[in-house]
């Protein structure tokens, strides 16, 4: 069994909705703010090869035009079993590595105005993420995202609302985290502006 959170499990989850080629998967994972896992092309193609060798997915060669060949990947029964086993298992969170909070930990070493500039940029970034996730959450609730439409084709109609609500709730969590991080950064700005006691 594959260990912990990994690109392999993210790929299996996406391919469960519908078969895709490497290019489609790369475009999907490059749109990180719309999802919860990002990965560059340099990781996706080697991972797909490893997964195919492990029997988790299978690739079907397709010819487009006269010379262009592509491989379309689909999840296998073994891959589906691996994904379901991983989904139903509690996993230890990875060690904390947050570059921004590490930076903030040492703000006392730079001028307050420079630290404030970093904090303001962070707040803007978190607010932008929250806005993007709100839009995606609404699209999920409306069952109006391409991957969800594909997934719902294979699920009983009576489950559609529950599936959409569960997926939208993940992005409600992302919104809550971004909102809390922005609020924390605003409080940090306040602390920076407090006068230094004599």
Automatic annotation (TrEMBL):
Residues 11-84 form the Transcription regulator PadR N-terminal domain. The lineage of its organism: Bacteria, Bacillati, Actinomycetota, Actinomycetes, Streptosporangiales. Gene3D superfamilies: Winged helix-like DNA-binding domain superfamily/Winged helix DNA-binding domain (1.10.10.10). This is Transcriptional regulator PadR-like family protein. Coiled coil: none annotated. It comes from the Bacteria. PANTHER family: TRANSCRIPTION REGULATOR, PADR-LIKE FAMILY (PTHR43252:SF2), TRANSCRIPTIONAL REGULATOR YQJI (PTHR43252). It comes from Nonomuraea coxensis DSM 45129. Transmembrane segments: none annotated.
């Amino acid at each position: 069994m594959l260990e912990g959170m990994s690109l392999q499990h993210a790929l299996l989850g996406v391919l469960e909705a519908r078969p895709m080629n490497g290019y489609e998967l790369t475009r999907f994972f490059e749109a990180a703010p719309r999802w919860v896992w990002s990965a560059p092309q340099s990781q996706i193609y080697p991972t797909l090869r490893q997964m195919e060798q492990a029997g988790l997915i299978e690739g079907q060669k397709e010819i487009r035009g006269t010379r262009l060949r592509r491989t379309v990947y689909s999840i296998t029964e073994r891959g589906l079993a691996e994904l379901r086993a991983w989904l139903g298992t509690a996993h230890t969170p990875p060690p904390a590595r947050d570059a921004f909070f590490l930076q903030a930990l040492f703000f006392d070493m730079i001028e307050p105005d420079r630290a404030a500039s970093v904090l303001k940029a962070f707040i803007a970034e978190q607010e932008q993420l929250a806005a993007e996730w709100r839009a995606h959450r609404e699209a999920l609730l409306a069952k109006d995202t391409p991957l969800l439409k594909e997934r719902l084709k294979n699920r009983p109609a009576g489950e559609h609302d529950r599936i959409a609500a569960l997926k939208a709730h993940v992005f409600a969590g992302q919104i809550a985290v971004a909102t809390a991080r922005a609020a924390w950064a605003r409080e940090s700005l306040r602390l920076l502006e407090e006068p230094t006691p004599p």
